[in-house]
Amino acid sequence: IQGDTNGNVFVDASSMLTIDPGVVVRFESETQLESLEGSAITAIGTPGAPILFTSDSSTPASGDWWAVSVRYSPASEFSHCVFEYATYGLSLQHSDPPISYCTMRHNLTDGITCAESEPTITNCSIVDNGRGIKVIGPDVSPVINYCDIYDNFEYSLWVGYYETLPVVTINAENNWWGTDIEEEIGWWIYIHSSGEGFVEVDYDPWLHETPINDTVTWGRVKALYAD
Q1: pLDDT tens digits for 41-77?
Q2: Please, are residues 189 and 166 in contact by the beta-carbon 8 Å criterion?
Q3: Which residue has better confidence, 160 or 224?
């Protein structure tokens, strides 16, 4: 592991950084933790001892720090982690780590960025970010199942830059989007296709209640009694 004069921390190539359950990682302004090509970050917490990535500010706000950045990493993994008050939360580039039981909240731009990456994202709470999940292609199709994805400022799922391939389908089934009305779910999913490419998001079936055991809202109570 090495650092620079700006306070960023890098995981050396061919190395693995393991973060233990219950650890709190605090970031100063505009800093990040980044895995260099061929390295890995494994952060596997537990339900009773999650791993927290957060701002070092006494009055934290969205965008206080940059991101946990995973680049060209073949072996990273994140489970029972919280990413909060960053600009990009968890940012992936050419990396497909499994992401489970994680919380992305209060992040300025994205909760999770998948740049030419197709992770499997399950049982996560992705709430109160600029965009919940951003997917940038071409030819990537992450799997997003059994998550809470709602109340994000711009979109809950933003997908784009599929210029070359004819059809790409993203499996986003069995998620709770904050509503069980199909039209309203569609409002929060943005798809940008250009050139000859075409991308679709398969979000049917969707859940009628949250799969995550967290704060109960009036919308969720109503969803419990949906037909």
Answers
A1: 999 999 999 999 999 999 999 999 999 999 999 899 9
A2: no
A3: 160
Model pLDDT, residue 188: 95
Tokens 């219950």, residue located: 22
With a threshold of 0.85, does the pTM exceed it? yes
Q: What is the mean pLDDT of the chain?
A: 89
